[in-house]
Amino acid sequence: MAENARENNKLNIKELLSILKGDLLGGLTSGIIAIPLALAFGVASGIGALAGLYGAIVLCFLAAVFGGASVQISGPTGPMTVIVASAIAMYPNDPKTIFTIIVLAGIFQILLSLTRLAGIVKYVPYPVISGFMSGIGSIIIILQSNPFMGANVIGSPINTIINYPNSISQLNYEALLLGLITLIIVFFTPQKINRIVPSALIALVVGTILNVKLGFNVSTIGEISSSIPKIIMPILSVKTLLTLIPISLTLAIIGAVDSLLTALVIDSVTKTKHNPDKVLFGQGIGNAIAGLFGGIVGAGATMRTVVNIKSGGRTRLSAIIHALFLVTLLAGAGVLVKNVPMAVLAGILMKVGSDIIDFKFIKVLKYAPRHDLYVMAIVYFLTVFYDLIFAVGAGITLSALLFAQRVAKQTSVDVKEVKDKVIRKLEKQIEVDTKHEIRIVHIEGQFFFGSATQIISHFDELLGTKYLILNYDSSSLMDISAVFALEDIIIRLKSQHIKVMLVINNKKIEEQLKNLGIIKQIGSKHLFYNEMDAIQKTKTYLKRKVKKKKLVNKNDEAEIQEIQNV
């Protein structure tokens, strides 16, 4: 007994050391990636590089301690930075108001976490998210085009585009050269190297060295203080706070969506479940305190989070280590970053902008339903050229109206659900006889953006299943959210070594699934128009795998024959 106890203790210590090692590597690796991004987002926001570092440190640490997604790395992100930049355009040369907005946004996120509204995010249609994220990516690229050419940032995308002739006439060729070198590095660095040293960090170092050695006449970050940040008290005037609510609420909501989408990515990669209310609570505390210390607002950062996980991060300690690593950098930041050219940061941010654009949706635009294209396009153009929060609201409203229109048109169509008692009995008998190695699931009614995430949740408890017959009973085409949800279902089932048989009932659905690459995921031989054919195919597979095992008793076979005769 004593020997067994000692052996167990050794195993526990070994497991603990393995977790600590993974968290250390995850925190440091994601921290290295965060360095150029924190500096770039801080500069892009209009507050300064130091604000980017403060925000990355405070938010990441507090969100890790209080948040509900343990390995999430939080910090400045593209969407949040764009909103802060627009706030600065509204309140120029008024840092106290800007930090009050950030503190207020954090408080709104805390309040959202207490209302249990976090779950509503999953009902936001995919085309709305796609249009918004692509719009944000485009805004970043447009706004950074001026410093890329050696000119100053202009507040809005429209003004930037209008001012292009003037910017081009005053082109700084040295800045442009550094910007182009940066783009080459961040886009074309081989993945083998990128996994070891992030391309953004390579670009930052190479661009800075070239600037110093060649004595270029370009704008740089300049000196930044490495002293402990002072507390900036927010404005407490009720009248002022009321005027700041719209922009603060915009920050809070966009940050909530950004963080919860990152948490969903964590769930997918780690096979865990996040707590959405705690995620928002941690983000709210982090942003509120970051604003008090002069840091810019942020959210859960998907790329940095995935890097943390892939590098070995397994607990919230990895995010804490990430924050502490940035603290040590901050101690010598003034000397290290003062010569970093603005054109280099612009190039890095242009790569960030391109990564945010939803090319996955853009690739299938030709085959996407027309109503999804309308929604995506409207949200995109409103995001880029009008207002961020209005764009999301308009997109959700338009999606709901178009969906209501489609449902109304279908009310006169007689869509029969499977209610045959013999078939129901047969399906249950097959599942029992095969010890649930074969399961049959019906998706009845409209498979759309509102039901897609609900349906996905039903495929998390299929222990013991080897073959799943997925019967899509509707005769309606799926919208793009449902198609991508179906793809997610198939990928999840594949990761559990479950073979999928898909049953549909018309050629139009087959054509849609073929064009969007879903049939390639399951294989054309696993697509059926008849459930009985899918059952027979599945039984053939199972008989090959488990010899001498009788799957269906004689009564069941008689019932099958009876159904086929009918």
Can you lay out the helices and strands and say which pair or pack?
Elements: H1 2-45, H2 49-66, E1 74-75, H3 78-90, H4 95-114, H5 126-148, H6 157-162, H7 164-169, H8 173-188, H9 191-196, H10 199-214, H11 238-270, H12 276-292, E2 299-300, H13 302-310, H14 317-331, H15 333-337, H16 342-356, H17 359-363, H18 370-385, H19 388-410, H20 421-433, E3 438-443, H21 449-457, E4 467-472, H22 480-495, E5 499-503, H23 507-515, H24 518-522, E6 527-528, H25 531-545, H26 554-565
Parallel strand pairs: 3-4, 4-5, 5-6
Antiparallel strand pairs: 1-2
The share of residues in helices is 55-70%
How confident is the prediction overall: mean pLDDT? Answer: 78
What's the number of structural domains?
A: 2
**What gross morphology would you assign?**
globular
Largest sheet entry: 4 strands, parallel
Cα distance spanning the termini: 66 Å
Radius of gyration: 27 Å
Strand content: under 5%
What does this structure look like?
The chain is mostly helical. It has 2 domains: 21-355, no CATH class; 421-565, STAS domain (Transcription Regulator spoIIAA, 2-Layer Sandwich), CATH 3.30.750. Helix content is 68%, strand content 4%. It contains 26 helices and 6 strands. It has helices at residues 2-45, 49-66, 78-90, 95-114, 126-148, 157-162, 164-169, 173-188, 191-196, 199-214, 238-270, 276-292, 302-310, 317-331, 333-337, 342-356, 359-363, 370-385, 388-410, 421-433, 449-457, 480-495, 507-515, 518-522, 531-545, 554-565; strands at residues 74-75, 299-300, 438-443, 467-472, 499-503, 527-528. The strands form 2 sheets. It has a 4-stranded parallel sheet with strand order 3-4-5-6, sandwiched between helices. Strands 1-2 form a two-stranded antiparallel sheet. Helix 1 (2-45) packs parallel to helix 3 and helix 3 (78-90) runs antiparallel to helix 11. Residues 410-422 and 548-553 have low confidence and may be disordered.
